[in-house]
Amino acid sequence: MPGPSIRDVPRTTDAFKRLLLGRAMRSDRLGETLLSKRIALPVFASDALSSVAYAPDEIFLTLGVAGLAAYSFSWKVGLVVALVMLVVVASYRQNVHAYPSGGGDYEVATVNLGPRSGLTVASALLVDYVLTVAVSISSAAQYAASTVDVFEGHQVTVAVSAVLLLMAANLRGVRESGTAFAIPTYAFMVAILGMAAWGFGRHFFGDLPDVGSARFDLEPEAGYESGIAGIAGAFLLLRAFSSGCAALTGVEAISNGVPAFRTPKSKNAATTLLLLGTLAVTMLTSIIVLAKITGLRYAEDVVEQLRLDGQAGEATRAGVRFAPTENFPDGMTYVQDPVIGQLAKTIFDNLPLMAGVVTAVTGLILVLAANTAFNGFPVLGSILAQDRYLPRQLHTRGDRLAYSNGIVILAGFAILLIVAFGAEVTRLIQLYIVGVFVSFTLSQTGMVRHWTRLLRTETDRVARGRMQRSRVINAVGLSVTGLVLVVVLVTKFLHGAWIAIAAMMVLFLMMKGIRRHYDGVSRELVVDQDEQVMLPARTHAIVLVSKIHKPTMRAVAYARAMRPSSLEAVTVNVDPAETRALQAEWDRRGIPVPLKVLDSPFREVTDPIIEYVRAIRSGSPRDLVTVLIPEYVVGHWWEHLLHNQSALRLKTRLLFTPGVMVTSVPWQLDSAVGLEDRPEGPPPGSVRRGERDRGSGLS
């Protein structure tokens, strides 16, 4: 029974690819992938909306370092974060109207501040997109571990699996992934807003209980015994504010994704931004206020900071066990749930099913939040590739009209971060938001210059009034985001932000190097006027021969049909007896091409051929040498291991030899018959499939 054929391998992989990604889409169907506002909101805004699941946690964790008294500042910190978000949203509404092409902050900075600023923004955004995926998925893994015991201790595995699932979903296309993610995103909005409304209603009627953690005392860490006081206290407040500003990540994704909206693109994008800002601010402030009302405690060091009647806890596998006290004679074990988890159990204490729903959709939205990055990173990568700052493969759309290469690269780097930091949000969040505020600040600076430049030439009074109003909005945005950037750098640099900054610098230098390479290649390949008519003085054709068989005879016939200036066959004397037999048969057959034998004292094939070709070229630089290699086309994968590995090395060496053309003359073996009948794949993505492998007939 015949073994598996190499033609079965691509068919099998194609079938798997179709099952995973769906059927390929024609390029003229790109318009069908455009998004309405109701789908664009979950696609582009899920990151910013989902940040309410971990931004309050970070605010309470940071303030908790100074003890319970510091919690009185929580609503004030939340209010400042909300105001910053509203300013940023208003500023970016100006961006999407002025630059609807999808370049976003990168385009704004490049056009108005120059290429260096644009590249700085691009580096910052690329790093931030990777961190968005890592932070969101890691946070989701923590929610999963707190809800399902079997996931405890396996957060990294859960997070990596979630990233791979998101990657596969996005490879199916923007519209399909958006439709799939719309229901969970809207479910999260309804769940959080519904929980907030139910909680405030119960509080209004005096029926809202305290959360379970309210029974604990929260001890300050060393150095903060006096609470929020002095320089240390002010610095802690700034740290809490900078951590809370994680809620702003994802706002810029809409400005990068304007081309994905249906017409009118700018108007729809601006409306989506307004919806995003309103929903995010409402949910964030509601959670912080409800946490304050219900007496929530949230400690970074649960064992040392949480105390019950003065007794410190003792860590166990499931949580923290407290020693028996007067109120709890049997002792108790406490597991610290995330802020939303604690609120859900308290607000819906008489509806446990609803508490489970809130926790479940929160964990799910954190997974889907990474979808914002999966839409922003590939688009930005495509624009950078078009501008020759990244490899050109990132500019190519895949079979489903998504930028598949960018999606895969984003997933790969996010998985590396998740594994390196053990899927711990508290560690990853220190690297977070630096990049996004770098892009915010430079973008708003560029927008101020944009309006100033237009105002110099605009004479219409109505248009000037509109531009001046936009400039004021962007100037306020510049002031606010610039101040936040300084705060973030000061408070987070030593806690891990330096890693993100270092990554940005590496990306910046790498992209500069790629652009320099592409520019150098372009200059090198420019056709001079003389070169348009220059022809080689002579053409020398060389047929490589290992033995006399059908592939060799076809190569000789093809070489003769080329009518070169000179033609000869060349073989390398590795085994003298075989070489003498080859010469004798060559003469006996009367092949009308001279056969030259190259000596090889060390039985090496490649170097003698390379030296001989170079010798021909050195005599006349304007001569051209064509080397013809008889080549087997095989049909079984294992046949590649048996045929002419030395020929592959020879081809590689010849390609680096100036003035030499390498021509393969194929000969199809019986195992390869029928491969030409295999249907060709569709044009989108074909550049990444590669050519069918072939072995060589040169022994």
Which oligomeric form is depicted?
Answer: single chain
Estimated helix fraction: 55-70%
> β content, as a range?
5-15%
Output the CATH homologous superfamily of the largest domain: Amino acid/polyamine transporter I
How many β-strands, per DSSP?
10
What is the typical, i.e. mean, pLDDT?
A: 79
What is the SS-derived class?
alpha/beta
Low-confidence runs (pLDDT<50, min 5 residues)?
1-17, 24-32, 679-699
Coarse shape: elongated
Query: What would CATH call the class of the largest domain?
Result: Mainly Alpha
Q: Which short descriptors sum up this protein?
A:
10 strands; five-stranded antiparallel beta sheet; Rossmann fold; disordered C terminus; alpha/beta
Descriptive account of the structure:
This protein has a 5-stranded antiparallel β-sheet with strand order 1-2-3-4-5. It has a 5-stranded parallel β-sheet with strand order 8-7-6-9-10, with helices on both faces. The chain is 59% helix and 8% strand. It folds into 2 domains: 70-298 and 336-520, Amino acid/polyamine transporter I (Up-down Bundle), CATH 1.20.1740; 537-688, 3-Layer(aba) Sandwich (Rossmann fold). α4 runs antiparallel to α11, α6 packs antiparallel against α14 and α13 (339-347) packs antiparallel against α14 (352-386). With 699 residues, the protein is an alpha/beta fold. It contains 22 helices and 10 strands.
